[in-house]
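Note to self: the last two entries modelled the partners one at a time, which told us nothing about the interface. This time every component goes in together.
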Amino acid sequence: MARSRRGGWRIRSPTLTVHRPRSEEFWPSARRLAPGVAPTIIWIVSALVMSLALDLAHSPLVPLPGVITLLFIPGASILSALQSRPANTAGRLVLAVCLSMFVIMVVGAVASLAGPVLGVSHPLNQVPESVTWAVIAVLLVVIGATKHCDPVSWIFDGVQTSNIYGVVAGGFLVTLSILGVARLNHTGNNDLAVVATALDSIVLLAGVIGGWSRTSRWPLNTLLYCVSLAVLLATSLRGGHLYGWDVQQEFGVASSTVQSGKWVIPADHDPYASMLSLTVLPTVLHSLVKLRLLAFFQLVVPAILALLPLGVFTTVRSVPRWITSGRPAPRAGLAYAVVIGLIVSSEVFASELVSITRQAMALTMLAGLVMVLFDRTMMVRPSRILIGMLLVAIAFTHYSTSYLLAGIFCCAWVASLLWSKGWLGTPRARIEKHRYDVGPRKIISAALVIVALVAALGWNLAITRNSALSAPSSAVVSKGAGLVATTGPSVISPRTLERLLVSELRQADKWLVPVPGSGSVRLVSATPPRAPGLLSGLAGVWNELGFLCQESLWIVLGLALLYGVFRLGRRVSYQYSADLVGLGVAGLMIGGVLRFSGTLAAFYSPERAAIFTAILLAAPVTLFLDDLVGLLFAPHSWSNLRVARVSLGAGVAYLVVLLVVATGLGAVLFVGAPPGSLSGRDVNVEQFTVSTPEVATAVWLRDHVRSPNLVQTDLYGRLVLLSEPGNYGIENEIVPPGVDDAAYVYLSTVNLRDDISQFDADDGEYVSIYKSNLGFFNRNFFVVYSNGVTRVYH
Amino acid sequence: MCLAVIVLVFAFTPISRVLLRSVNGSFAPTGYSSLSLKTPSDGAEGVLVGEAVRVKLTNDSGRVRTYHWSALQKGGVISLGEETLSNGRATTISVPTQGAVTGTLRIVLNGTSVFLTLPILKL
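The predicted structure of the combined assembly is written out below.
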């Protein structure tokens, strides 16, 4: 109804009016759009131009701008769309990369599943992927414009360019490390590699001292990332192909996906082929920015893994969420020391994780998840959304980490519930206040527990139905937990091996047709080359010291948690948080189970579990040590400065021992048999490196031998066959009585050059090293392939 | 800073070459030459005397190479030949077996440890 000009009232006809925004309102005009997301547009265009220019210049760095863009912009867009980000730029970068990996995996998987339905038979090939990502780029820019939040600015806001010295120093360390491994690969001389590693360790320790003051301006983030990257590249670039065991199989899976141009749920329920991190992620990077698969595993994965210490450092250098007692942030140097002690000096970080790339990526995501959980500047709702995304991303990345995390979230939810109810150490008189303070401030909710469970079980058991859980669960059912502290295979003599082999042949391999007379061949024991330490007289003492220091970390973790729960949380509830308690208790519990279960150790080594636990407990440990340092320097009657300094000196010495053990410098100096990154020709080099001629042999076998033919090789030879899987049966033994008359026998460089073979029995429980019996193969087989350092007999 | 990064990226190849040379380092693949039977089952089934053995010779040594090959039996030369291959190329050579007798034939690349063996059968 409206008043008429004549003063009376008239009734308006009931018309439906639809508000149609002008195009300028709905689609932001270029004038409005450009200033809003100009940095992102400039970034994307610059990356395209750089790639083109590098391609024209025939540079090997052609994929670099594209890889950086793909691993940064999608994640940055998610953070800007949620209007949420960690306080620290380093943390934002870690999170942006983790979320970008998530986006790439989701987009690639959707394309793979929907593409064939839409008539695109190879949706992960270059053309479909280019179209898909061009559309996604436009969408991200439009979303950024409508939200008035530029993704690039959202991440780099407040970055200071004063850290130029840190960048130069870090770049020097990375370059030196690469040159060291290049020299080691080419000449076998390890001097530069040792110098580079020693320098990395010194810089890490200098960071602890330089960052000790609360007002320190040392570029700790830059140094930590660069040193971590340097240490990882020294391992990942070793040899002519990939270094390590698992990574060979991961390469094989990625290679198959690249060749087929799409990802399909594996029919054989292979856990590796079920992981989008090993299939879709490298394939998209390969198709879109011409990144070679070898470069993905040798360079990109270490670059991602080097974010792990950075993520943990970002978490522990601030006061965790909900602690409102007015406590100052821990000293940066102390937080740095905790990260060095727990993560960088972890037994697996430098030498193993680059060879288990699925876990490397998943642990980096876990560090991002914990960072979001504890970052006090991020709001609750976006934090929960980001944690949910990361839980799903981890399920796509690594089955074991996903299962463990689901278990930890369940336990953590229960533990945090108990603590927030005041049933875990809170005095009766304070329970009501404790519940009031703690209850509503938890991040780990029932919804997140459900997401963790659905992601882990849904992806692995319901969708891909992979067999990752079946082997460990059946082992636990048949053997029990096997609660022993010792792990690893037992070395047995060739005589014992012969006896084991005879029984194994009778039971499991009845179908083998042995060569006549092979039973009379006796195995002769052999010793792989093993360089002694420079100060080998101290090897025993060093071994015991290193073992004590590493094992005592568990005590530090336990003490820190007990201190938090029963000291901080008991007295004043807002000095601790339910999430800290929950994750700490669950992490320590699961870490302890994996540490002491011999059965599970065969599937998930205690060292890999230790780094998992360390990520969860790094924050409580930092709070504990920060209070301890504060106590040492407090003006008490019983303390004096000398005691405080001696204690700090002992702490630094403890860190030095951990670092020297983890980097392999201890092996060079005392024990011998250093890791491949510091050794020209030693037991680890033989075990884990692959040469180009060996890859060529594996390719020849893949192309020329078909099922039902059988390829037999030993553990040394098996390594390279994993990266070029063929359509043939495979048997991991070349002990003469176990060699089939009609088999193809692959002898690797170690088998031929050093006359050494390695055999394992009972799923790796027993290992034996013996002479290769070359005479037996020369007498009974013919050479059908040879390149001077390897042979295939038939 | 951006300019320095761009210069480093575009000058990467010459800089990396100089640095690698200065430390006597390299990431170049290990060179090799290989021999393989065109039909791997010949290794088990053998060939009849007088039949040519088809062998694939591959050069991945990183440079052009001239190969001298020989087919030997019981110390005597059954046949020999020469092939020149550029890097990354492969060729198939037919190795004559006239004059061979029942037993094992050994085909070698002279001056290397690259060789094949196969059984020679009676006609």
